[in-house]
Amino acid sequence: MFGVETCHEIHEEKLTWLKPIILQWLRLNRDYIEDCDCRDSLYWYNERANISAFAGATWRSGGFALEEYNAIKGKEETKGKGRVDLYIQYAGHRAVFEAKQHWLHLSAKQKQDFTGFISAACEKSMADVMHTQNSLNHPYGIALNFIPTYFKKEENVGGSLILFREAVESCDCSFYAWFNNASGKDVISSKKNICNSVALIGRLA
Question: Does 189 reside within a domain?
């Protein structure tokens, strides 16, 4: 894609139907940054904004998406009212998603355990989707993790960024996607953080 570096892979064969949605998610992030001339992004707000972007990618692909809807969740002894982050229908498939967002500060000063960071993030979303699936039992229950990165302009984090991307590509997951703004114009937040990259990691429950 023009102006960005991306990659993606689906390890779980039964989830290959998600590929058009993942590709649209990457394009959606690219298109929005380009439209805003790098002054804004979809991924640097909160969990709900990231879910909306994935839902938007589903609609763009010709599917249907329902966000933040009420449902009874949990097993018999723990059943209660709650909200499901996302439900989609696409190409004859139905899936329910629970999502988490985890900001990652890339640092050049200390060695970071990116594999451990990703694993801990996935455990939280997996616990949520398992709780949801205990009562809803959709054909697919998927844990989503959005990991946007940030760093200060004076920090040289090129090496850390490469190591994080490698950790994403080799992590224990059902699928992943990697997005990095490579337009030459940084996406800079109100706190003067550079926020050019986001990883999407999914695990099948």
Answer: no
pLDDT digits (tens, 9 = 90+) for 33-67: 999 999 999 999 999 999 999 999 999 999 999 99
Cα–Cα nearest to 1, from 141, 178, 149 = 178
**Domain that residue 29 falls in:** 4-152+171-183
Quick check: pTM over 0.85? Answer: yes
- Contacting residues for 99 by C-beta, under 8 A, at least 6 apart: 47, 50, 51, 54, 85, 86, 125, 143, 144, 145, 146
Per-residue pLDDT tens digits for 78-119: 666 778 899 999 999 999 999 999 999 998 777 899 999 999
- Within 8 A by CB and 6+ apart from 185, the residues are 37, 38
Single out the residue of 14, 8, 45 nearest to residue 142, CA to CA.
Answer: 14
